[in-house]
Design a protein that fits this description.
By secondary structure, the protein is an alpha+beta fold. Helix content is 39%, strand content 20%. Helix 2 packs antiparallel against helix 3.
């Protein structure tokens, strides 16, 4: 009876191949970045704001998404706004005293300063709003003014853990196959 040791050659090849971990991490980081970018592109196509308009948010996040890697890690780098949407939390103004929350299709995508004829009005609910007054027309609410807003987190902001695991498994298998190890 003969015992043939095929595993030793594979293990030696695997050991040599994994000495360049940065290369493996580059493959993984690039593949996962593409997965996240594709997810953001899908969000851009399907998500609309309350006015029925596609937001530019997901397109901007897709453009800013990049891969980073080293000998010890593979990473997908995203803007902090993605984390805000994923985990949720309180949003406060950074450049002014108030957040302006669009309430009118004409206001969406524009800073309140774009309109020179807005006036602050106290609402029946006790809050404040920015209204546009045009002669011979009813006043129109353009923005609500808020000191802060609480955003709920949402797991659909990123690919599912299963999608990430499947993509990682696929790219590692491809990496090893190219080196004759899988």
């Amino acid at each position: 009876m003969y015992v043939v040791d095929n595993a030793s050659q594979v293990l030696i090849g695997l050991s040599i191949s994994l000495q360049d971990r940065a290369q493996l991490h580059k493959f993984v980081a690039t593949a996962l970045t593409n997965l996240v970018k594709d997810h953001f592109a899908q969000m851009a196509m399907t998500k609309r704001n309350k006015f029925g308009v596609r937001s530019t948010f997901w397109r901007r996040q897709r453009a800013a998404c990049k891969s980073e890697w080293s000998d010890t890690a593979a990473a997908v780098v995203m803007n902090r706004e993605v984390a805000q949407r994923f985990y949720g939390g309180t949003i406060t103004p950074k450049k002014s005293e108030w957040l302006t929350i669009p309430q009118n299709r004409k206001a969406y995508g524009k800073a309140a300063g774009f309109f020179k004829d807005l006036r602050v009005v106290k609402l029946k609910t006790g809050g404040l709003g920015l209204f546009r007054f045009v002669k011979d027309q009813d006043p129109e609410l353009y923005y609500l003014l808020r000191k802060s807003v609480k955003q709920l987190g949402s797991s659909d902001v990123l690919p599912t853990p299963e999608q990430i695991e499947a993509a990682t498994r696929t790219i590692v298998t491809k990496y090893l196959t190219r080196r004759g190890l899988a």
